[in-house]
Amino acid sequence: MGPFLPHVSVAASRTVVRRASHSARSGLGRSLLFGGIRLPCVCPQSFSRGRLFGVPAGLLEEIGWMGYAFPKMRSQEDAFAPSILLGLLWASWHLPVINYLGTATPHGAYWYAFFLAFTVAMTAMRVLICWIYTNTESVLLAQFMHVSSTGSLVIFGAGRVSASQEALWYGLYGIPLWVLVAIIAKIYGRSLARQTA
Q1: End-to-end Cα distance, the chain
Q2: 3-state class of 71 per DSSP?
Protein backbone atom coordinates (compact mmCIF):
# COMPACT_ATOMS: atom_id res chain seq x y z
CA MET A 1 0.00 0.00 0.00
CA GLY A 2 2.95 2.27 0.67
CA PRO A 3 3.27 5.85 1.84
CA PHE A 4 0.48 7.10 -0.40
CA LEU A 5 -2.33 5.39 1.55
CA PRO A 6 -2.77 8.23 4.10
CA HIS A 7 -3.22 10.66 1.21
CA VAL A 8 -5.76 8.32 -0.35
CA SER A 9 -7.85 8.31 2.85
CA VAL A 10 -8.18 12.11 2.79
CA ALA A 11 -9.52 11.87 -0.74
CA ALA A 12 -11.68 8.87 0.20
CA SER A 13 -13.47 10.69 3.01
CA ARG A 14 -14.31 13.56 0.68
CA THR A 15 -15.38 11.09 -2.02
CA VAL A 16 -17.75 9.28 0.37
CA VAL A 17 -19.52 12.55 1.14
CA ARG A 18 -19.58 13.65 -2.52
CA ARG A 19 -20.90 10.30 -3.78
CA ALA A 20 -23.62 10.26 -1.15
CA SER A 21 -24.47 13.82 -2.15
CA HIS A 22 -24.62 12.97 -5.86
CA SER A 23 -26.70 9.84 -5.27
CA ALA A 24 -29.15 11.71 -3.12
CA ARG A 25 -29.51 14.52 -5.65
CA SER A 26 -29.75 12.50 -8.83
CA GLY A 27 -31.21 9.11 -8.13
CA LEU A 28 -33.37 9.19 -5.08
CA GLY A 29 -35.90 11.80 -6.05
CA ARG A 30 -38.07 13.08 -3.25
CA SER A 31 -37.71 10.16 -0.87
CA LEU A 32 -35.20 7.68 0.39
CA LEU A 33 -36.00 4.00 0.81
CA PHE A 34 -34.19 2.82 3.93
CA GLY A 35 -34.81 -0.61 5.37
CA GLY A 36 -38.18 -0.80 3.63
CA ILE A 37 -39.24 2.53 5.13
CA ARG A 38 -39.70 5.49 2.83
CA LEU A 39 -38.19 8.61 4.34
CA PRO A 40 -38.32 12.16 3.04
CA CYS A 41 -35.25 12.94 0.99
CA VAL A 42 -32.20 13.65 3.07
CA CYS A 43 -30.65 15.43 0.11
CA PRO A 44 -27.41 17.25 0.85
CA GLN A 45 -27.30 20.99 0.54
CA SER A 46 -24.67 22.75 -1.50
CA PHE A 47 -23.28 25.46 0.75
CA SER A 48 -19.90 26.13 -0.87
CA ARG A 49 -18.83 28.79 1.65
CA GLY A 50 -19.11 26.03 4.24
CA ARG A 51 -15.58 24.90 3.47
CA LEU A 52 -14.39 27.91 5.49
CA PHE A 53 -16.14 26.57 8.62
CA GLY A 54 -13.61 23.78 8.94
CA VAL A 55 -10.51 25.96 8.70
CA PRO A 56 -10.30 27.40 12.23
CA ALA A 57 -11.47 24.18 13.88
CA GLY A 58 -9.15 21.96 11.85
CA LEU A 59 -6.08 24.15 12.14
CA LEU A 60 -6.40 24.97 15.83
CA GLU A 61 -7.87 21.78 17.32
CA GLU A 62 -5.34 19.47 15.72
CA ILE A 63 -2.47 21.27 17.41
CA GLY A 64 -3.84 19.88 20.66
CA TRP A 65 -5.34 16.58 19.51
CA MET A 66 -2.54 15.35 17.26
CA GLY A 67 0.33 17.63 18.22
CA TYR A 68 0.05 16.90 21.93
CA ALA A 69 -2.59 14.43 23.15
CA PHE A 70 -2.30 11.52 20.70
CA PRO A 71 1.51 11.20 20.82
CA LYS A 72 1.25 10.95 24.63
CA MET A 73 -1.59 8.39 24.48
CA ARG A 74 -0.30 5.92 21.91
CA SER A 75 2.35 3.27 22.25
CA GLN A 76 4.49 1.50 19.65
CA GLU A 77 2.20 -1.53 19.83
CA ASP A 78 -1.18 0.16 20.11
CA ALA A 79 -2.44 3.30 18.43
CA PHE A 80 -5.89 1.88 17.68
CA ALA A 81 -7.41 1.93 21.20
CA PRO A 82 -5.96 5.40 21.97
CA SER A 83 -7.38 6.71 18.68
CA ILE A 84 -10.86 5.45 19.63
CA LEU A 85 -10.54 6.99 23.10
CA LEU A 86 -9.39 10.26 21.54
CA GLY A 87 -12.37 10.08 19.15
CA LEU A 88 -14.75 9.75 22.09
CA LEU A 89 -13.04 12.69 23.80
CA TRP A 90 -13.24 14.69 20.56
CA ALA A 91 -16.96 14.02 20.24
CA SER A 92 -17.45 14.99 23.90
CA TRP A 93 -15.48 18.18 23.24
CA HIS A 94 -18.39 19.19 20.98
CA LEU A 95 -21.05 18.47 23.64
CA PRO A 96 -21.44 22.13 24.74
CA VAL A 97 -22.35 23.11 21.16
CA ILE A 98 -23.96 19.86 19.96
CA ASN A 99 -27.40 21.43 19.77
CA TYR A 100 -26.07 23.99 17.28
CA LEU A 101 -24.21 21.63 14.93
CA GLY A 102 -25.86 20.54 11.71
CA THR A 103 -28.86 22.09 10.02
CA ALA A 104 -31.77 20.90 12.19
CA THR A 105 -30.94 23.09 15.17
CA PRO A 106 -31.89 22.97 17.92
CA HIS A 107 -32.30 19.20 17.97
CA GLY A 108 -34.85 19.24 20.77
CA ALA A 109 -35.89 15.76 21.86
CA TYR A 110 -33.42 14.25 19.36
CA TRP A 111 -30.28 15.93 20.70
CA TYR A 112 -29.11 12.72 22.38
CA ALA A 113 -29.72 10.61 19.24
CA PHE A 114 -27.88 13.25 17.20
CA PHE A 115 -25.01 13.27 19.69
CA LEU A 116 -24.71 9.47 19.54
CA ALA A 117 -24.74 9.46 15.72
CA PHE A 118 -22.26 12.34 15.68
CA THR A 119 -20.04 10.41 18.11
CA VAL A 120 -20.12 7.30 15.90
CA ALA A 121 -19.06 9.28 12.82
CA MET A 122 -16.50 11.49 14.55
CA THR A 123 -14.84 8.62 16.41
CA ALA A 124 -14.29 6.83 13.10
CA MET A 125 -12.97 10.06 11.58
CA ARG A 126 -10.59 10.46 14.51
CA VAL A 127 -9.23 6.94 13.98
CA LEU A 128 -8.57 7.85 10.33
CA ILE A 129 -6.83 11.08 11.37
CA CYS A 130 -4.74 9.14 13.91
CA TRP A 131 -3.83 6.59 11.23
CA ILE A 132 -2.64 9.37 8.94
CA TYR A 133 -0.62 10.93 11.75
CA THR A 134 0.87 7.57 12.79
CA ASN A 135 2.17 6.97 9.29
CA THR A 136 3.34 10.50 8.51
CA GLU A 137 3.98 12.24 11.88
CA SER A 138 2.43 15.27 10.15
CA VAL A 139 0.14 17.51 12.17
CA LEU A 140 -0.40 19.45 8.92
CA LEU A 141 -1.96 16.40 7.23
CA ALA A 142 -4.12 15.82 10.31
CA GLN A 143 -5.22 19.45 10.09
CA PHE A 144 -6.02 19.05 6.39
CA MET A 145 -8.09 15.93 7.11
CA HIS A 146 -10.02 17.75 9.84
CA VAL A 147 -10.59 20.81 7.64
CA SER A 148 -11.73 18.58 4.76
CA SER A 149 -14.06 16.56 6.96
CA THR A 150 -15.69 19.55 8.67
CA GLY A 151 -15.90 21.58 5.48
CA SER A 152 -17.43 18.67 3.57
CA LEU A 153 -20.01 18.08 6.28
CA VAL A 154 -21.05 21.72 6.14
CA ILE A 155 -21.05 21.88 2.34
CA PHE A 156 -22.82 18.56 1.73
CA GLY A 157 -24.69 18.15 5.02
CA ALA A 158 -28.35 17.24 4.85
CA GLY A 159 -30.37 20.44 4.46
CA ARG A 160 -34.00 21.07 5.36
CA VAL A 161 -34.36 17.97 7.50
CA SER A 162 -35.89 17.23 10.85
CA ALA A 163 -33.71 16.55 13.87
CA SER A 164 -34.46 12.80 13.69
CA GLN A 165 -33.52 12.70 9.99
CA GLU A 166 -30.28 14.52 10.65
CA ALA A 167 -29.38 12.04 13.40
CA LEU A 168 -30.04 9.25 10.88
CA TRP A 169 -27.90 11.04 8.26
CA TYR A 170 -24.93 11.23 10.65
CA GLY A 171 -25.41 7.60 11.60
CA LEU A 172 -25.39 6.59 7.94
CA TYR A 173 -22.33 8.76 7.33
CA GLY A 174 -20.54 6.84 10.07
CA ILE A 175 -21.04 3.46 8.38
CA PRO A 176 -18.59 3.90 5.46
CA LEU A 177 -16.12 5.58 7.81
CA TRP A 178 -16.16 2.53 10.11
CA VAL A 179 -15.83 0.22 7.10
CA LEU A 180 -12.69 2.13 6.12
CA VAL A 181 -11.44 1.91 9.74
CA ALA A 182 -12.01 -1.87 9.70
CA ILE A 183 -10.04 -2.22 6.47
CA ILE A 184 -7.18 -0.15 7.88
CA ALA A 185 -7.19 -2.12 11.14
CA LYS A 186 -7.07 -5.38 9.19
CA ILE A 187 -4.14 -4.21 7.06
CA TYR A 188 -2.14 -2.28 9.67
CA GLY A 189 -3.13 -3.95 12.94
CA ARG A 190 -3.42 -2.24 16.32
CA SER A 191 -0.32 -0.14 15.73
CA LEU A 192 -1.99 1.50 12.68
CA ALA A 193 1.54 1.78 11.29
CA ARG A 194 3.26 0.43 8.22
CA GLN A 195 5.33 -2.59 9.07
CA THR A 196 8.96 -2.15 8.11
CA ALA A 197 10.76 -5.21 6.80
Answers
A1: 14
A2: helix
